[in-house]
Design a protein that fits this description.
heterodimer, A: about 100 residues, alpha+beta, two-stranded antiparallel ribbon, two-stranded antiparallel sheet, 3 helices, about 20% strand, globular, B: about 300 residues, alpha/beta, 4-stranded mixed beta sheet, 10 strands, about 45% helix, disordered C terminus
């Protein structure tokens, strides 16, 4: 999750660039300023942290939280008053 | 950790690129997003349905990341494979070495692969409670280049033992054969990716040299792993799941994620496949002398947990 300064035009541009970078690396938006990514290994987490660090605009705040797949599945989410279906960890076989 | 296999099996799907994602949409009147997969997590895309459409961007993005894009024809046969032409930074040197490798070396390597395949077939027969002696007896008879064509003799003994004497391997027949086709297609995609990632040319084979086959090397290197697919198909047949369904496909794909005993310890099959391709490249350039092949068979499975 991040907070970026968006007062001036260059700052807004940098914030957008940062957000697009997150999408390029496969992060998905959970809500505004909160992005999530499923990782297979701690090595992958480290690589992504490094990339986030490199792309971070001046004056931005970022917190990277890590939780296990069990904890991810226990997240309870609401949209309006409607309880959303439980999160599922991605399968290694995706059939569309 | 190995990546995911994405299969598009339903008509009316459109694939496109959105930043770092492969986006799958349904087409027609109810156009909506079916899901998105981070490109960095994909090991292969298998395009199985007939009514698909895709943007050029998504094909380019797959090629950039070395993701093989597999085109399937009828009965789950892989008919084409879109691969990157830039697989590895050492590619030029390795392809040169591959091209100038000596005939005796190629023959030795092929013999080594045939022995590994026979050992794997013997493991499958043992695991399914069949006699192994007919196949194990052949292993010591494999000579350089398999000049006695022991591989074919092995197949002649192995198939009737595994699936009964009435079974015929025929790519166009439904049932067991289509399960095998599908399993080999997935295996072939993983092997093709590994070969290109190792900086080798997939067309220059060790033994297969059918002029029309662009994947000779891939077909050579996947030989030792085929019996693991056979074993999975056998297990499906025991549960009388003899047809292609999403469930049987999933089981076949999970063969790639099962652990095998490699010289470097327990590792998923998909990784052992990469180790084999990389070790071949190293043999070509003279950095090592032997292929790196896992022990026959898969280790005790966690498969029941996954499903």
């Amino acid at each position: 999750m991040f907070d970026l300064p968006v007062l001036t035009k260059p700052e807004r541009k940098a914030a957008t660039q940062f957000r697009l970078m997150l999408l390029d690396y496969g992060f998905e938006m959970s809500q505004f300023s909160v992005y999530m990514r499923y990782c297979y290994s701690s090595a992958q987490v480290e690589t992504l942290c490094k990339r986030v660090e490199e792309a971070l605009p001046d004056g931005g705040r970022v917190n990277i939280l890590q939780f296990t797949d069990k904890q991810y599945e226990r997240i309870i989410s609401f949209h309006g008053a409607v309880r959303q279906p439980k999160n599922r960890n991605p399968s290694q076989f995706n059939l569309f | 950790m190995p990546g995911r296999i994405v299969e598009i099996a339903d008509d009316h799907r459109h694939l496109s690129l959105l930043r770092g994602f492969l986006v799958v949409e349904s087409t027609g009147a109810d156009r909506q997003e079916m899901g998105r997969v981070p490109l960095d997590d994909i090991a292969a895309v298998i395009a199985n349905a007939h009514g698909l459409s895709y943007t050029n961007n998504i094909l380019v993005a797959c090629a950039e990341r070395g993701i093989p894009f597999v085109l399937c024809a009828a009965n789950h046969n892989a008919i084409g494979l879109l691969l990157t032409i830039e697989g590895n930074s050492l590619q030029a040197g390795r392809m040169q070495a591959q091209l100038s490798s000596s005939k005796p070396l190629q023959k030795q390597l092929w013999a080594c692969l045939v022995r590994a395949k026979l050992a794997q077939q013997a493991w499958v027969l043992a695991e399914t409670g069949k006699p192994t002696a007919p196949v194990t007896a052949l292993i010591s008879k494999v000579r350089s280049g398999d000049s006695g064509n022991i591989e074919a003799q092995g197949a002649q003994r192995y198939w009737p033992l595994l699936f009964g004497t009435s079974f015929r391997r025929d790519r166009t027949v439904e049932g067991i054969n289509s399960l095998l086709n599908y399993g080999y297609t997935v295996l072939r995609a993983a092997m093709a990716r590994a070969v290109v990632a190792a900086g080798l040319h997939p067309t220059l084979g060790l033994h297969h040299h059918n002029a029309g086959n662009a994947m000779c090397l891939v077909d050579d290197l996947m030989e030792p792993f085929r019996p693991l697919i056979d074993y999975c198909v056998w297990k499906l047949c025991q549960k009388s799941q003899e047809f292609i369904t999403p469930e049987t496909k999933q089981e076949l794909v999970y063969v790639l994620y099962q652990d095998v005993a490699s010289p470097q310890g327990r590792t998923p099959l998909m990784h052992a496949i990469q180790q084999l391709a990389t070790s071949l490249a190293q043999v070509y350039v003279g950095e090592r002398f032997e292929l790196e092949l896992p022990e026959p068979g898969v280790l005790d499975e966690l498969l029941d947990d996954i499903n």
